[in-house]
Amino acid sequence: MGFKEEIKRRRTFGIVSHPDAGKTTLTEKLLLFGGAIRVAGAVKSNKIKKGAASDFMEIERQRGISVATSVMGFEYRNYKVNILDTPGHQDFQEDTFRTLTAVDSVIIVIDAAKGVEPQTEKLMNVCRMRKTPVIVFINKLDRPARDTFTLLDEIEEQLKISTRPLSWPINSGPDFKGVYNIYKRSLNLFDANVQEIEPGFLFEDINDPKLEDHIGGDANELREELELVEGVYPEFDNEAYLAGDLAPVFFGSALYNFGVQELLDAFVEIAPSPRPSFTEEREIKPDEEALSGFVFKIHANIDPNHRSRIAFLKICSGKFERNAVYKHIRSGKNIRISSPTAFMASQKEVIDEAFPGDIIGLPDTGNFIIGDTLTAGEEIHFKGLPSFSPELFRYIENADPMKSKQLAKGIDQLMEEGVAQLFTNQFNGRKIIGTVGQLQFEVIQYRLEHEYNAKCRFENLSMHKACWIECADPKMLQEFKKRKHQKMATDKRGRDVFMADSAFILQMAQDEFKDIKFHFTSEF
Ligand code: G4P
């Protein structure tokens, strides 16, 4: 198969949801279809169960599992599907946001009884920012669900995206009869006792009286609803979907493996193959011959005897070849990667080549950090791996003076992995850790102790937000920094960060210094 065909057949995407909507279950069912796993239960949820938030061993166990399920590749019909897993726990949402920079499209799972939940909205905001094409899967139709039209309205309103149902549920809960696939014009009947693949049968004319034979008295209601659908929603517009303006919607029950194959079939047909990526210098097209890619995730090995890490590289252009020499742009060094790995469901294997859209694992002894670019030689820098303004802050102090070197190294590496962000107060030089979730502090403390043999102590710091500031007028910037000198910090790249005590103080600063730009992500 030629280089261009290899790119065209790739579908690299992420599944996201509010915790418990069914992301893990759906992922598993997709893998079953792809033949990547044979039995249900093979993919362990990497979410941290409620109530176990401070159970460190649980976190570590989960981390161990999640490396295997971070990327799951499989073949389906002539497509190469790459699913990127994202942590469900909201304290790890930054990890999720970064993973979303490496996907070409997204499937959002929504619980049919709960509708749009807070985490769904946040995740959609990231997709919208990047114009990522989104498919919605409304799950758990085997349980009593909200009214279908109401659900669709809620998605449009709260997720701020137009929708177009491509399938339609016939009742829900105990009366759930199945789904009419508008996209394929076929009827798929639900039977709670059968969890086998059942692609449905063709039913082009829903006015055919045979519909009654299958779904009895619900036939008329289905006809009416479908008529309404056709009246209310314009034809499905693939271009609008690819532009991130329109979300096709599917219904089903991941638990019962129902509606999942329809979703997968439509997904491989309509979802985009690898899209162009953006560097500070220029746009990179996937079919360019020269290799380029970026590191979006680093996973440390939790076994202290094997301190190696895995850097996850998304290939953006060119063919990756094992043992070829590539340039690591940040260090300027040429490197040869002799054992790159691909992730096929729950196993890792060394590969000889990989194509745009693929994610490969690079064994790492500390050379890579998140955001690193690897190329065939060209000096480019990929954009779009933002750090978000953290909202929880603590001073970090050394609790064992004999181990200050270990502590410094540990903090450095954990920050490179993207666990949290480190700021240095410009006034008193104290180190501040900023996170988006409470759990990260516990993870940091635990990992420093177990992986780096260092001890730290946290001191509370009540702070509202950290934001990056810039100003075209150096005088004004100087004036601002002078006035706020106790609240100015430096991030890991040496940039100025304003630590606002409260929303009110931030607003005052914004009002007073109109020419200063306050940024809430590190990419601007
Ligand atoms: P998440 O990754 O989005 O957090 O959700 P996950 O797949 O773990 O699903 C959350 C719970 O919802 C699980 O139950 C799962 O079995 C259930 N579930 C998922 N899809 C469906 C569906 O289509 N219908 C119904 N009725 N339930 C569904 P749990 O009891 O929390 O976990 P478990 O002990 O069964 O693993």
Explained architecture:
With 524 residues, the chain is an alpha+beta fold. The protein has 3 domains: 3-67 and 88-94 and 103-274, P-loop containing nucleotide triphosphate hydrolases (Rossmann fold, 3-Layer(aba) Sandwich), CATH 3.40.50.300; 278-375, P-loop containing nucleotide triphosphate hydrolases (Rossmann fold), CATH 3.40.50.300; 392-519, 2-Layer Sandwich (Alpha-Beta Plaits), CATH 3.30.70.3280. The protein is 28% helix and 28% strand. The chain is built from 14 helices and 31 strands. The strands form 7 sheets. It has an 8-stranded antiparallel sheet. Strands 2-3-1-4-5-11-6 form a 7-stranded mixed sheet, with helices on both faces. It starts with a helix and ends in a 5-residue tail after the last strand. Mean pLDDT is 86; it is low at 44-56.
